[in-house]
Specification:
Rossmann fold, alpha/beta, 7 strands, 39% helix
Length: 191
Amino acid sequence: MKVCVYCASSSKVDTKYFEATKKLAKELARQDITIVYGGGSYGLMGCLADTALENGGKVIGILPRFMEKVEWGHKNLTELILVKDMHERKKLLIQDVDAVVALPGGCGTLEELSEVITLKRLGKFTKPIVILNTDNFYYHLRMLLEKMIAERFMRKEHGEIWQFVDNPEEVIPAIENAPHWDADAINFAAV
């Protein structure tokens, strides 16, 4: 199994986010689930990779070349794939994965998450999307998504595109129990 994890590169975030990241990384490694992530060595990205590797996990990083030039790339991954730009990175992050997990993050994480939600709405990505809502970090996003459905910018069925969980231990069960989604979603993508 292979899971894409979106997360922050900031090292200045509260320790609670690092603790949740470590728990998730340990569980993914324990379950022999390969992590595909942005390839960074700092912040939650570095914590995710380091913890998984320390626990025998496999970690594949996808990093744009311009980031490698400023030494943002992790040096000890199972595999580091260098790509041309952010667009290619996002495409490869979700290629052939079995799920996407979003940890707390900044605008890059939000952009990646928004894109994969859009792709799933259109039936171009059909795997589970799990949002780890550590300490209610994603409360406002959850409210916004619910408002989009309530105000009919999205259909009620689109609420099954994602699952919010509060604890790292809930991520794998959420992946395993996610509602079925397929390419036919394009048929009800419009409201």
